[in-house]
């Protein structure tokens, strides 16, 4: 019932894949055991599992270069180690690997960056945790290079050492470029309940750059950061889901591309990095409208499962306020936590704050003016609201529209007998004209509005005269 009630309001957020329409079902797929996803639904995540079945040549080479460099410059780092009466052959310690990498190059500026660079090797299986249970961590944990998995691993020759010295800096640069993405995938592969506040902030920052999420509010993006799951598939041609199946997840493409296939029509479109699919079946609680087939090898996705999707959708509507005129939304506000808790002290209920999601220019302006007029105290939050408006109003309301709208709002306020006039600190006020008509009694630079701070008044003065 909730979706039926609010479906028309969520059209922009919950649009179906391009060109996909509801049609008949097709449940004839037989699961392909070789093409099962890296992360299965409802199975505990294993962050140490490799993403690719076969390491790429450049990552294999990078691992070989780093191993040779360590054996040449700090051979004590790779040795047999004992822990809890068990011996681990030819392994390194995570903290020592981070220390060593920082010492070798100027392109590594932090331990977090070094962790991401080692994670690149771990994702491809070129470096592994000795028990295959950990992603790379800057801790006293044991890791082993792929070449050291064999008991008869050869020592590097003099020629190999020379080649290593020549290639080491280029290898470091390559890993430093790949490290941030690997670090992000490492965080996304953690169970949501194990993500730290820093992890959630990193995920949120990444979501700001994803095209499919650009229209979502800050609140929704932050909620998504806590529930998104990383999923990857190694082989092109893998069927992610079939037309007619029950919808269980919403997907966002991080890497690669997929074909959208409708029975009887074939491929109707191709989706690429930054696109999303799978929401239609969740919103309508209907079967999948199309099949999704991987177009290439090694595709990566962000996945939101149905339970989390429905909860976020309910939260969105519960915290959304809509102003309608003639059955059309003219202002949509989202409730957000009050930014200044100190201002709520002594109040029986916390003050509600709202952020504008969409609306007509006139209603956005009216909301802005009412917000700063009703602010109970002059503080930085008031100035911040005004500064945001001064900087952004030209996007939705140029000065030629802003001036008449301000006059109309002033007259509306005066008709309610809520007179707003400038108060002069020193000097006199002056009349400001727009297109030859008196627009508003405005202040000189020594005049302030009674319900704005001096700094806010100056911003408004500059806006009107600029």
What order do the helices and strands come in, and which of them pair?
Blueprint: H1 2-6, H2 57-73, E1 79-83, E2 86-93, H3 94-104, H4 111-123, E3 127-129, E4 142-145, H5 158-188, H6 197-207, H7 218-225, E5 229-233, E6 239-241, E7 249-255, E8 258-262, E9 266-271, E10 276-277, H8 279-284, E11 291-294, E12 299-305, H9 306-318, E13 320-325, E14 328-336, E15 353-359, H10 361-374, H11 380-396, H12 399-415, E16 423-424, E17 430-434, E18 437-442, E19 447-448, H13 454-465
Antiparallel strand pairs: 1-2, 2-4, 3-4, 5-12, 6-11, 7-10, 7-12, 8-9, 8-11, 13-14, 14-15, 16-19, 17-18
Helix pairs in contact: 2-5, 3-4, 4-5, 6-7, 10-11, 11-13
In short:
The protein is an alpha+beta fold.
Would you kindly provide a written description of the structure presented here, covering whatever features stand out?
The structure is a single chain. By secondary structure, the protein is α+β, with helices and mostly antiparallel strands. The chain has 3 domains: 2-44 and 194-311, Jelly Rolls, CATH 2.60.120.10; 57-178, Arc Repressor Mutant, subunit A, CATH 1.10.10.10; 360-465, Son of sevenless (SoS) protein, Chain S, domain 1, CATH 1.20.870. The protein has 13 helices and 19 strands. The protein has helices spanning 2-6, 57-73, 94-104, 111-123, 158-188, 197-207, 218-225, 279-284, 306-318, 361-374, 380-396, 399-415, 454-465; strands spanning 79-83, 86-93, 127-129, 142-145, 229-233, 239-241, 249-255, 258-262, 266-271, 276-277, 291-294, 299-305, 320-325, 328-336, 353-359, 423-424, 430-434, 437-442, 447-448. The chain has a 4-stranded antiparallel beta sheet with strand order 1-2-4-3. A hairpin with a 2-residue loop joins β1 and β2. α3 packs across α4 (111-123), α4 (111-123) packs across α5 and α11 (380-396) packs parallel to α13. It is elongated. 24% of the residues are buried. The model is unreliable at 1-47, 340-350, 417-456 and 462-466 (pLDDT under 50).
């Amino acid at each position: 019932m909730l979706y039926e009630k609010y479906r028309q309001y969520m059209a922009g957020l919950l649009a179906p894949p391009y060109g996909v329409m509801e049609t008949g079902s097709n449940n004839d797929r037989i699961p392909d055991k070789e093409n099962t996803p890296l992360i299965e639904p409802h199975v505990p995540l294993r962050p140490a599992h490799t993403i690719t079945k076969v390491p790429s040549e450049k990552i294999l080479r990078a691992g070989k270069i780093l191993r040779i460099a360590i054996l040449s410059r700090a051979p004590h780092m790779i040795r047999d180690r004992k822990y809890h009466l068990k011996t681990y052959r030819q392994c390194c310690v995570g903290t020592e690997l981070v220390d060593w990498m920082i010492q070798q190059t100027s392109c590594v500026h932090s331990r977090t960056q070094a962790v991401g660079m080692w994670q690149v090797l771990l994702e491809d299986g070129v470096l592994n945790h000795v028990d295959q249970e950990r992603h790379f961590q800057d801790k006293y944990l044991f890791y082993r290079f792929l070449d050291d998995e064999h008991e008869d691993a050869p020592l590097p020759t003099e020629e190999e050492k020379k080649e290593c010295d020549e290639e080491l800096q280029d290898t470091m640069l390559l890993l430093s470029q790949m490290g941030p993405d690997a670090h992000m995938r490492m965080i996304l592969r953690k169970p949501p309940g194990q993500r730290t506040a820093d992890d959630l902030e990193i995920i949120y920052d990444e979501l700001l750059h994803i095209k499919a999420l650009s229209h979502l509010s800050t609140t929704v993006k932050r909620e998504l950061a806590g529930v998104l799951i990383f999923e990857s598939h190694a082989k092109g041609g893998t069927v992610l889901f079939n037309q007619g199946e029950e919808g269980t997840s919403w997907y966002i493409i991080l890497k690669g591309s997929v074909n959208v296939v409708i029975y009887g029509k074939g491929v109707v479109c191709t989706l690429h990095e930054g696109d999303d699919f799978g929401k239609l079946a969740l919103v309508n609680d209907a079967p999948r409208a199309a099949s999704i087939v991987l177009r290439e090898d090694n595709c990566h996705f962000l996945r939101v499962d149905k339970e989390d999707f429905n909860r976020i959708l309910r939260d969105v509507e519960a915290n959304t306020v809509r102003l309608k005129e003639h059955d059309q939304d003219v202002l949509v506000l989202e409730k957000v936590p009050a930014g200044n808790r100190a201002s709520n002290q002594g109040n029986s209920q916390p003050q509600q704050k709202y952020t504008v999601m969409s609306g007509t220019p006139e209603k956005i302006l009216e909301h802005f003016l009412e917000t700063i007029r009703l602010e109970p105290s002059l503080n930085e939050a008031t100035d911040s609201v005004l500064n945001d408006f001064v900087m952004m109003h030209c996007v939705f309301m140029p000065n030629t529209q802003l001036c008449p709208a301000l006059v109309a709002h002033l007259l509306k306020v005066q008709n309610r007998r809520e007179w707003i006039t400038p108060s002069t600190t020193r000097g006199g006020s002056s009349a400001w004209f727009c297109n030859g008509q008196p627009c508003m009694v405005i202040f000189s630079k020594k005049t302030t509005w009674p319900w704005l701070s001096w700094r806010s008044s100056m911003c408004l003065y500059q806006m009107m005269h600029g």
